Description:
23 strands, alpha/beta
Amino acid sequence: MVVCGDDGLAHRLATELRGVYGEQVTLIVPPSERGVRTPVVGRARATTAALLDRVVSAAVNRAAGGGDPTATAATAVNGGERVVEATEATEAALAEAGVGRAAALALVYDDDETNIRAALTARRLNPRLRLVLRLYNRRLGQHIEELLDQAAALAAGDGSTDGDGSPFDASTTVLSDADTAAPALAATAVAGTSKVVQTDGLMLRAVERPAPEPGEVADPGLATLALLSTAGSDPADGSERDGDSGPRLLPDAATVRAATGRGTVVLEQVAYSGPSLPPARGGVVPPFASLFSRRLRWSLAGLVACVVGLAVALSVVADMHPLSAFYLTLLDLFAIDDPAIGASLGRQILQLLSGLVGLLLLPVLLAAVLEALGTFRTASGLRKPPRGFGGHVVLLGLGKIGTRVLIRLRELNIPVVCVESDPEARGLAVARRLRVPVVLGDVTQEGVLEAAKIHRANALLAVTSADTTNLEAALYARSVRPELRVVLRLYDDDFATAVYRTLRAAHPLATTRSRSVSHLAAPAFAGAMMGRQILGAIPVERRVLLFAAVEVGAHPQLVGRTVAEAFRAGAWRVLALDTAKGAREEIRGTGLVWDLPDTYVLRGSDRVVLAATRRGMAELLGRRRRDRAGSGSGS
Length: 635
């Protein structure tokens, strides 16, 4: 894998590829004097610093010898990770990094033009290369994606096989910060864990369960993914062996039944069980009462009471029928009656009072009309949180990332209340279309979070563009509800780590997550580099389970076999069938069907979701990255 970038995302992505997927990574980074601070990634911090020190020394030596500082710089190697120092991903730098033999290339520079230019060069050097680009312009990204895929297909003939006949994936994936951050933020707010995989609108999480008591039957969930290490074993020793004491990935049913005193990791679907949003009323007409403010309604009620009082007084003074008195009062009120000349003094006084009330009524009626027109515009598009509403997610910020998070949460049927200070924010149109309650106001002002029902919420997602605003909102929400689940979006990775540790120490019983943009983006970029069929990865102690969606016809290990026969313990397991491509009569349901019978025969046209170990996935997909890495180890 080759990663090119000029900010913290490149280093975070390289760490994700090495630590989670076990890939060999080459980094192309700018010269150290132009580079940025490396993010804190556990133990990788010290090794990366030492690695960059060696790169600096090599660059100084090269400059002393009269080398070209703009060309490919020195290469440093540490623990299987190579670093190539270059100002840009030029053809020489890409060749130095071994793009011609690489499986995938990620271009995560902060400039769209730099990424596009490097992608075109890389596609020419290696038509079979998987490309992942970071572009902010989504419309341009769609066109670039189609162009590069078409170029790969033309350069590789039919675009389906390598020279040895094995399948390959030369896809191009364009991602933006909003696209990559939104799924991680939504998953953390809903599930409170990073062990989450999302597919076709479903959110799945891996849950660790303790060993069952004697005689107790454990719930296997959707599937049993792993047996945890036994007591006394050391899961942190980095071992990959399948011994009896270590974790057992994808065990068969007999192994699970025979295991005693061992916890399990099961797959569950994340579902929301709280109250749902009230159904939207038909059309765009809001309730009549919502058109007028409370003060205006009280003013109208007071005037009505005055009219009724004047009518009663006229009925008593003039000895008239109440209906006639009310009629004459209205005539006086609207100044369309003749003067009460020759009438009693009481009648004349009441006529003057009625005219005065009529004068007071005119501005109130005008205010009612203006307020109704103004309120109708906002009430028809933006809803307010209903009374007694709770169990929802409070989302702060409807910018680029907040809009994506809102869409993802509503796809999962999670109730949301949004808070936005800018009445022209891009996400307000989406909230209006989705009929999501919105509170317009500055979250740092008193009463705004209370209007969003923060005291009844399950989680707070602070994703505004200002770190201080997110932090202030999180601290205030903690003071209102200490056990509230809080997720912060912070730009700087070091700052995010410090905030997380402090909030966790201050509120040990609450779930707190503070994530930088690079931290949120790295898993999505890494999954795209592994191929479009990879849905995600879930760590199990020191090992990793991969989830993928594959076509059965492309894998002889699956086609023509039953679900039970296709299962290989410790390697892969079929979890679900995608019925969008059609299924036989014995399969009922739409979308992804998770309760597949063991007797179901997989046919070539089926598309399935499966879990696999790294070795199992490499064997199933026919990948030969280890062979390629070995042939290029000399560089």
